[in-house]
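pipeline: protein-struct stage 2 | run 1193 | Phosphate transporter
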Amino acid sequence: MQGFGIFGSAIVALIVLAAFKNAIIADVTAVDYCWRIVLGVGAVPGLAALYFRLTIPETPRYTMDVEKDVNKATTDITSYLQKDDASGEGEDAGNHVEVPKASWSDFVSYFGKWNNGKVLLGTAMSWFALDIAFYGIGLNNGIILSAIGYADTHEPDLGERAYNSLKNMAVGNIIITIMGTIPGYWVTVAFVDSWGRKPIQLMGFAVLTVLFIVMGAAFTPLKEHSIPAFIVLFTLLQGF
C-alpha cells in the first residue's frame, strides 16, 4: 500500500497547487501554504490508523507473552477463528505463566555465533544500503525530475514559473508511481508465494545494482541527450 500512499501524496499536491494557482502567480511566497497543507493532510490517514490501532483487540501472542494471560489469549484466538464475539474475558483471574525475559547476554550469546550473526549482519547491511538508495532517490522524485530538467520552465514571471515547475513535479511523480512503483509492489504481491521471498529479494537487489550503475555512469549524457530514456530507467528503478 506504500505505492498508493506515494500516489495519493502526488494527487494531493496537484490539487493543492491547483487551488493556490492564482495566489502563487500573484505572490510566490504562497507556495509556503501549499507544502504545509500537503504535509498536514498526510496526518489524516495516520490519525485514522492510530484510532483503529488503539481500539482493536490485542493479538493472542501479545496477551500470552506480555500480559501472560493464557485463558484470555485462548479466548481471543477462538473468537478470531470463529469470527464470533466470544465473551468470557475477565470472568476469572486467568491462568498466568511466567515467561523468561530476554537479556543482552542472550542476544550476544545467540548472535555471537557466526551462523546466526551472519544472517543478522547480511540482512541489516543489505537493507541499509537499499534504504540509502530508496529514501535518497525513490522518495525524492521531484528533486530528480528537477535535476534532469523535466520540471524546468522558462516563464519570465517568477510566480508562474514556480507554479508550473511544482505542477510538473507532481505530474511526474504521478506518472512514475503509476508506471513503476505501484506495479512493482503488486507484481511482488502476486508472485511472492510462487517465486519465493528470497529469489524476489535477490532479483530486486541485482537489477537495482545494474540500474544504479548505468544511471550513475551515464547521468550527464542521459540528462543532456535523452531525458525520456532516463525516465524509463528511473521508472524501472521504482518498479524493482
